[in-house]
Specification:
The protein has 279 residues and is an alpha/beta fold. It is 34% helix and 24% strand. Helix 2 packs parallel to helix 12.
Length: 279
């Protein structure tokens, strides 16, 4: 694994940097602090909307930017100011609504996630794992009629998720979604199919941010676990997948580290900054 001259680290959060219970391990927190002290720019790169990002990460010294909604936006971490945006084209959003007329939707609007009220009441009933119930209930705003709400806000959508309680439904939605011109279709979770603009994606947003900061891809390390991280890992000079990553993510990586619950990100950060680990 080549670790020389890494100046920027892009981190997926769920099931990569965070533990499976969505918490940030003390050891990982310490590793992020040591990396920042070493002069490394730390960039959050998440499928989450900005308002649902953990404050304990955004507040860290060295974390100045967040790639959110699968690369639909880039915000300044400390203020939430949006500096890059690739919203979902209205025609694409309309086709998603028409094609998946009976789907259970989530949507992200200008950094805020919304979901159907009945889903928020009992997420597990609709396929949400128990570990993410608190996350859903504390980050989403409930809507009684998602289709009408999304239609009313058709020009403001960052991205759309379709919640799929079964693997069979997910495969069907994913295949159908791939037929929609102008859509970027991916997945960060066994229960989600995620739609954004074809101009979005974590890899594209990370490339844009690196150009803004004057950093070369060869000086970037990116960490991920999902299909939505694959393009980011390919772009980075060092692409790292955790052991629990999807097949596509692992195939896109240069290096496989330990799982998120085995502190894989923290251990690899210490290798990059060449410091003795505290984990």
């Amino acid at each position: 694994m080549r670790t020389e001259n890494i100046k920027l680290v892009a981190l997926d959060l769920d099931d990569t940097t965070l533990k499976s219970d969505s918490s940030l391990a003390e050891e990982t927190h310490a590793a992020l602090m040591r990396a920042a002290e070493s002069g490394i720019e730390i960039v959050v790169a998440s499928g989450r909307a900005f308002t649902s990002l953990p404050g304990e990460i955004l507040e860290l010294e060295g974390v100045n930017y967040a790639i959110t909604s699968n690369g639909s936006a880039v915000e300044k971490a400390k203020t939430g100011e949006r500096i890059y945006s690739k919203p979902l084209p209205e025609s694409v959003a309309e086709e998603i609504l028409n094609r998946f007329s009976h789907a259970m939707f989530e949507c992200f609007i200008e950094g805020q996630p919304y979901c159907l009220a009945k889903y928020m009441e009992d997420p597990v009933k609709y396929g949400c794992s128990a570990a993410y119930v608190s996350y859903v209930k504390t980050t989403r705003k409930p809507v009684e009629d998602m289709r009408s709400f999304m239609a009313e806000n058709i020009s403001r959508l960052d991205s759309i998720d379709i919640i799929c309680p079964t693997a069979e439904l997910k495969a069907e939605v994913y295949a159908a979604g791939k037929e929609i011109a102008g859509a970027y279709v991916t997945s960060s979770s066994p229960r989600l199919v995620e739609f954004a603009s074809a101009e979005a994606g974590k890899g594209r947003a990370l490339r844009w941010l690196c150009e803004r900061l004057g950093e070369k891809a060869e000086n970037v390390a990116a960490f991920g676990n999902g299909d939505n991280d694959a393009d980011m890992l390919i772009f980075a000079g060092l692409g790292v997948a955790v052991q629990n990553a999807t097949e596509l993510c692992r195939a896109s990586a240069d290096y496989i580290c330990e799982t998120n619950d085995e502190l894989g990100v923290a251990k690899t950060l210490y290798k990059i900054i060449k410091k003795e680990p505290v984990c």
